[in-house]
Amino acid sequence: MVIKAGRTDFQEKLNVSRETIERLDQYESLLQKWNPAINLIGKSTLNDVWTRHFLDSAQAFKIANRQAGHWVDIGTGGGFPGAVVATIAVDAVPDLRFTFVESDMRKATFLRVLTRELGLNAETLTDRVEGLPSLGADILSARALAPLTELLGHAALHLNPDGRAIFMKGGSFQKEVTESLEKWAFQSDEYPSITDGTAVVLSLGEIRRV
Fold first, then answer.
1. Segment 48-60, tens digit of pLDDT
2. pLDDT surpasses 80 at 198
3. Do the Cβ atoms of 81 and 73 come closer than 8 Å?
């Protein structure tokens, strides 16, 4: 069951600044403007942006608990979770810098406009993540991008040795974890999603191929 929430509920759960809420208002407006042309989010979620996309993505910020460093978000698309986290970080963690990796040129253009309009500490790379040299990430995140075993390969390449991968997964996550353990070793913490009772957020470290 998906838990419904809105703008007010987001502010209560995250306890963010008024300025952050205003930036997210701008973000929502840009999504509404761009979405008809490039399908950043599903049409059915346009009226539930604050829960389905903003609150869901903000979980990654709470779990990472970083005060500085380099956060890499892969397959960023409409900005989830990376650009939402970067929006919160403008006031909460100004020394945290972001790299968004998005191979779709139109979506990458949206992310650059979003970065400029909201004043995010971020850059966007229009590349496929597997074709990039190591990005030296302290945090690497992804939402609804690929099976876990594939994501672990990206994490092994792009994370610093003590970095963490934060992957948002649905109800089949346990099957993905079991299958991944055939090829990978990792330390895993699992956090129940605050927006979907069947989903989890995985925080993974010490990732190595076996």
1. 999 999 999 999 9
2. yes
3. yes
Q: Is the pTM of this model over 0.90?
A: yes
Whole-number pLDDT of residue 2: 45
Torsion 66-71-113-104 (CA) sign: negative
Using 50, 70 and 90 to split pLDDT, how confident is the model at 5?
low
Measured in degrees and rounded to the nearest 5, phi and psi for residue 139 equal: -130, 135
Q: Do 191 and 200 form a contact (C-beta atoms < 8 A)?
A: yes
In a domain, 1, yes or no: no
Question: Nearest 5°: phi and psi at 158?
Answer: -100, -15
CATH number of domain containing 70: 3.40.50.150
Into how many domains does the chain fold? 1
Distance CA 76, CA 181 (A): 26
- CA dist 189 to 6, 121, 208, Å? 28, 28, 16
